[in-house]
Each structure stands twice: as C-alpha cells, then as structure tokens.
Amino acid sequence: MSIRVVIADDQAISRHGLRMILESEPGIEVVGEAIDGLDAVGQVGRRTPDVVLMDIRMPRMDGLEATRRLRDVPDVEVIIITTFDLDEYVLEALRAGAVGFLVKDSPPERIIDAVRSVARGDALIAPEVTRRLLGRFVSTMPARAGDPRLAALTPREHDVLLEIAGGHSNADIAARLHLEESTVKGHVRRLLAKLGLASRVQAVIFAYETGLVAPGSVQGAEELRD
C-alpha cells in the first residue's frame, strides 16, 4: 500500500515542490495540501494520512499547535519541516509529539527517506541535526540533575537510549550493539514505556535535558563505556 502524505505549508511554492519530490517516488501518495495548521488538522480528519509534513510558521494556527492537536490521533505521524536558522519552536514541536524534522533545503532523497522511515515506525533525527539543532537549544536550558526514571532501565536499555540520543536508527543500533533489529525495537518500546515518553524524538530530548548526554558530546554506547 502507498504511504499517504499531507503537506502543510502556507507557501504554495513549498507545497508544490514537496509534492513533486514525493510523487516522483513509487509507493508515496500526496493525499492533501493544507495552507495552515487548522487546515492540516482538518485534512488529517478527512484524508487519513500516514504522515504529515508540517511547517512551523503558518497563519491562523501554527505547526506547533497543530502538532499538539494531532498527537493523539492514531496512525498518523508528524514530521516538522522548517528553516534551521529561524525556528526556535522546533524543540517544542518535538515535545508536542512530532517524530522528527527536516530542514527545508534537505535534498530530495532525504525527504523521501524521512517519509519512508517515519511510516515504518522510525523517528527521523539525523546525527548531524541532533548535534546542531538540539544541542543549540538544549544548551541554553538548565539540565536537571538526572532523573529517577533512569533507574528503571536495564543496562542494555540504557545503551539503546544513548544510541537513540546519537540519532541512530534501529538498524544502526543493531549493528553497533551487535543485536538483532527486532531486539532493538523491543528495547526501544520498553524504555519509552518506562520513561513515560511517546516517541524516540522525546527520548532524545529527555537524554539532553537530564544530562545523560551533553550538546556536542554524543557518542555511541560502546564508546562511552570505553
């Protein structure tokens, strides 16, 4: 079955460009275009997409509020697509339930990969974006002195959390920790439940905010143990 996508952006040229990129790829169908966040929420209700590409700065309702409203809608995931240097709201959008983000000048193949990754259950946080963008915002926030929820994690779940914080996919984590990908998925599911988090993206934010990792110092679990 095709991956169904709604594009939400107040600029027609951006919507058109994204549609052209996505519809050039077999197995992806753009089922709706929204001109603002309020329209995006309505489009989701009518079009039942799998993925929403959501801009942040839009009239009437911005992408942040729209993402909050879509958080509890089943079987739909939000990817924020934004201008890196301008959007101070990206971190809040991720907290609100978005499963990843792209910058607007991303190459077409990355946009396509993002939609496919999110549709199959992965978050999209490229390692370089994790370090640059989350590092930039989280570094301005006071870190909490740990979190008691971390004590509930097994050593392997702790390792997997560190790998997620480094922006690695399930396949990458499996290779780096010498595990089966299905085993990694199980660890991710359990650690999110133990930490009370809704997505892998929120796990990255949690790791930064609790001081488990510091901006600019993300390494793999194996390196951190050495």
From TrEMBL:
Keyword Transcription regulation: yes
Location of the Response regulatory domain: 4-119
Alphabetical UniProt keywords: DNA-binding, Phosphoprotein, Transcription, Transcription regulation
Gene3D superfamilies, A to Z: 3.40.50.2300
One example of a Gene Ontology biological process annotation: regulation of DNA-templated transcription
Modification 4-aspartylphosphate, positions: 55
Listed Pfam families: GerE, Response_reg
GO MF terms, alphabetically ordered: DNA binding
Matches recorded under CDD domains: LuxR_C_like, REC_NarL-like
Transmembrane segment boundaries: none
InterPro entries assigned to the protein according to its UniProt record, in alphabetical order: CheY-like_superfamily, NreC/VraR/RcsB-like_REC, Sig_transdc_resp-reg_C-effctor, Sig_transdc_resp-reg_receiver, Tscrpt_reg_LuxR_C, WalR-like
Keyword set includes Transcription: yes
Annotated HTH luxR-type domain residues: 146-211
Name of the protein this chain belongs to: LuxR family two component transcriptional regulator
Organism: Solirubrobacter pauli
Lineage of the species this protein comes from: Bacteria, Bacillati, Actinomycetota, Thermoleophilia, Solirubrobacterales
